[in-house]
Amino acid sequence: MSFVTCQLCPKQCRIAPGQSGECRIRINLDGRLRAVTYGRPCSLHVDPIEKKPLFHFLPGSAIFSIATVGCNLHCTNCQNWEISQANPEEEPAYLCPPEQVIALAGEEGCRSVAFTYTDPVVFYEFALETSLQARAAGLRNVLVTAGYVNEDPWRRLCRVTDAANIDLKFFSDRLYREVCGATLKPVQDALVIAKEEGVWVEVTNLVIPTLNDDERSIRCLARFVHDHLGPETPLHFSRFFPRYRLKNLPPTSPKRLLRAREIAREVGLHYVYVGNVPGSGGETTRCPGCGAELIPRVGYRLGEIRIREGRCLSCDRPTEGVFE
Amino acid sequence: MNGPTRRGFLLSALTLSGAAALTALGLLARTGRRILIPVKPLDRRRLRDRNDLAG
Fold first, then answer.
1. Residues A131-151: b if buried by 16+ CB within 10 A, e if exposed
2. Which residues of B touch A19 (CB under 8 A)?
C-alpha cells in the first residue's frame, strides 16, 4: 500500500490508497494525489464584488465566482457547510474546465474571477490553472480564503492573484483549534506573504458573541493587521448568524460590531467596515484624510464613487486600493 | 475413521476467515474509493440569480 502525503496545507494529511485528506477532495488514487474536483465546480455565480467582500478592488464591478466542494477547515459556524463539508460524489457539479470558466466570465461582462464560497486552497490546481488563463485573457483573479496553506504553494498562487479577502477568524490558537480544526500561525503567515507578493489584501473577521467579541481580542487582531499588513489594509467586521453546528449563540449585536470598528480605528486602521448589518452605514468608504464619502454603500448598492485616479475628489489624498 | 478434530476444524475456519479478510482488505487497497461526481447542466439564465452562499 502506498500512502501519499499532501503538502498543500499545514495539515499535511497522510493519505491511504483510495482515501482523501481532511478536505475530502484530494484523494490518493493509485499512489498519486488527485484533486478530483478539477474542472468540476459545484457553484458558478455572477456576484457583486462587494459580496466577497472587497471594497477597494474594482468597486461596483461584477465578478464571476466559482467553487468546488471541500474545505480543509471544519468551522462549526460555516455559512456554506452544505458544499464545504460535502464529499465530491454527494454534490452535483458542472463540467466546466478553466477555459470555459474564462469564456463564461467574459460573456457575462465580468472583469475578474473569484475562487470563493468554499476554500480555493483545496481546489488549488483548478484555481491556479484558471487564474493563469484568466490573466492571459485580461481578467483579474480574486481569492476568498481562510489562508490555511503552506508557504510554497501559497506564494505560487499569490503570483497569479490580484486581490484576496482572507479570513482572520480568531486571534487565538485555541479558538482556531476548537472552532475550525486549524491553527493561527499559518494564517498570519499567509496574510503577510500575500502582502509581500503584491496581492491587494482585505481582511474579514466574523465577530461571534462570547468567542471573539471581547475588546482585547478585537484590539489584538486589529493591531496585528495594522503592524503586519499596514494601516491601509481594509478590515471587515462581519455579523455572525447562528448556522450549522453553532446555533446556540445569538447573532452579533450591531452595537458590538460598531464598537469593534471604533477599536480598530483607535489602533490606527484607515478603513474599517461593518458587514451584514444593512443600514448601519458601516459599509461606506470614507477618506481617512478629510472624512468625505468616497464610496457610499447600502448593501451591494453603490452611490457615486468620488475617487479619481486613486485620489479623493475632495482633498486629493491617495485612496489605497485598485480602482481601475 | 479419522475425521477432522475439533481443533483442526477451528484452525481451518480461522485460516479461511483470515484469508478472506486479507483478500477484502487487499481489494479495498487496490480499488480504493470510486469517485463518481454527479453532473448537473449549466443554465446560463440562472448565473445572475441571487445566491445565499457567503463570500
1. bebbbeeebbbbbbbbbbbbe
2. 32-33
Q: Phi first, then psi: what are they for B32, rounded to 5°?
A: 60, -155
Query: Which residues 6+ apart lie within 8 Å of A151 measured at CB?
Result: A189, A193
Cross-chain residue pair B32–A116, CB shorter than 8 Å: no
Taking the Cβ of residue A295 and every Cβ of chain B, the question of whether any pair is shorter than 8 Å is answered with: no
Q: What is the DSSP letter of B44?
A: G
Task: Tell me the one-letter amino acid at A163.
Answer: A
pLDDT tens across A147-197, in order?
Answer: 999 999 999 999 999 999 999 999 999 999 999 999 999 999 999 999 999
ipTM: 0.89
CA-to-CA distance for A238 and A273, rounded, in angstroms? 8
Per-residue pLDDT tens over the stretch A207-255? 999 999 999 999 999 999 999 999 999 999 999 999 999 999 999 999 9
Write the residue in B32, B35, B39 that is nearest to A95 by C-beta: B39
Q: Which residues of A96-105 are buried (b: 16+ CB within 10 A; e: fewer)?
A: bebebbbebb
Residues 23-42 of chain B with CB under 8 A from chain A are 28-33, 35-42
Residue A173: its pLDDT value, please?
98
pLDDT in tens, B10-28: 677 767 676 666 555 554 5
Residue A302, all three cell numbers? 453603490
Count, residues in chain A: 324
Size of interface A-B (CB pairs under 8 A): 79
In DSSP terms, A140 is beta-bridged to A112
What nine digits make up the cell of A235?
478590515
- Closest approach of chain B CAs to the CA of A196, in angstroms? 24
* Residue A317: pLDDT over 70: yes
Contact A272, A235 (CB under 8 A): yes
**Which residue on chain B is closest to A51 by alpha carbon?**
B55
List C-alpha distances in Å: A248 to A50, A76, A77, A112, A210. Answer: 29, 11, 10, 38, 11
- DSSP 3-state assignment of A114? strand
Secondary structure element (H or E) that encloses residue A172, with its range: none
